[in-house]
Amino acid sequence: MITTLTRLGDSIGVQFPTSLLENLSIFENDHVEVFVVDNSIVIKRLEQRKHLTTKERIAAFGETAKPVQSSEIDWGKPQGKEIW
Predict the structure, then answer these.
(1) Are the C-beta atoms of 43 and 35 separated by less than 8 Å?
(2) Which of 32, 38, 39, 49 is the most buried (most CB within 10 A)?
(3) Which residues contact 84 (CB under 8 A, 6 or more apart)?
């Protein structure tokens, strides 16, 4: 395939036919990694990470997370015009 580089704002882009990207299972808004190997540009599709629920994200911290204090903190008597 031969294509032309195109200006996209302050960058230069290249357009790929949809059929080529579909053959590689790359779709619009997918994340890809771009790097140089032996003076060639390589574009690699990144594996999609599973969306984690809040509970799964909290569990991922394991025992490194500090427990949340549920008691109130007494800051003492007002020093100015604070309303407590």
Answers:
(1) no
(2) 32
(3) 78
